[in-house]
Amino acid sequence: MHDCIFCKIIKNEIQSNIIYNGKLSIAFEDINPQAPHHIVIIPKRHMVAISEADKNELEEIFSAVDIIAKQLNINDSGFRLVVNQGKDAGQFVPHLHFHLLGGRKLNWPPG
Ligand code: AMP
Ligand code: ZN
């Protein structure tokens, strides 16, 4: 999509630290990390919401989460996977993304 920041990251028009590059999805470091490890995982196809993702995309994203968590050594200590969807959740970038957060104790409930 023309003006989407995450589509620009996919096309390499905006620099990011990409740590996983799959067929249907890509993952990079969040520019404003909320934990020692904060990775954003996105489908390569532009979409706003989970309902638009197909099962191959979701399967690859969840498999990427597993691979990345193991790579970052947070699989055993634990991590949180978050989707902010829509205005009540405060979705800022309108391209579906999964936040993977780890490396510190995370509070619950979230704000
Ligand atoms: P959300 O509020 O769920 O839409 O979160 C959007 C996330 O994207 C935030 O955590 C931002 O820090 C992150 N973000 C925005 N622009 C960039 C960028 N250019 N590179 C990496 N992360 C970004
Ligand atoms: Zn996009």
From TrEMBL:
Q: Which residues does the entry assign to the active site, renumbered to this chain?
A: 97 (tele-amp-histidine intermediate)
Q: Where does the record place the HIT domain?
A: 5-111
Report the Pfam families cross-referenced here: HIT
Out of the domains of life, which is the source?
Answer: Bacteria
Alphabetized InterPro entries for the sequence: Histidine_triad_CS, Histidine_triad_HIT, HIT-like, HIT-like_sf
Identify a single GO molecular function assigned to this protein: catalytic activity
Q: Where is this motif: Histidine triad motif?
A: 95-99
Q: Which PANTHER family match?
A: HISTIDINE TRIAD HIT PROTEIN (PTHR23089)
Q: What protein is this chain from?
A: Hit-like protein involved in cell-cycle regulation
Organism of derivation: Candidatus Saganbacteria bacterium
